[in-house]
Each structure stands twice: as C-alpha cells, then as structure tokens.
Amino acid sequence: MVVKPEWLRVKAPQWQRVGNVKEILRDLALNTVCEEASCPNIGECFNAGTATFLIMGPA
To answer: Which one of 15, 28, 43, 44 counts the least CB within 10 Å of its CB?
Structure first.
C-alpha cells in the first residue's frame, strides 16, 4: 500500500463556514472567480474566509 505524503493531504473544509461565506456573497450580490470558474478548491478558500472577486462584474 502506498502512503500519500503529508503535504499532499488536505483536510476537508468545514461546510458550515463555507455556507456562511456563500450566504454573505449572495446577500451582497457579489460574484467570485471561484464560483464563475467552478474552481475545485472553492471549499478550501471559502473555509479560510477568502474569495477572489470579479472587479468588472459577471462574465
């Protein structure tokens, strides 16, 4: 059995915090690159309370 190196392991995001960030973005009607590009790492960023914004608006 091959063991993955420690740096390759990623903890699962806390989905409650991810939901809170999404709710804030919806309330403020903000678009993010994360959502528009369907980023596979969105849970990691939102869990950290960060997002990348579209300055000029939706694509």
So the answer is: 28
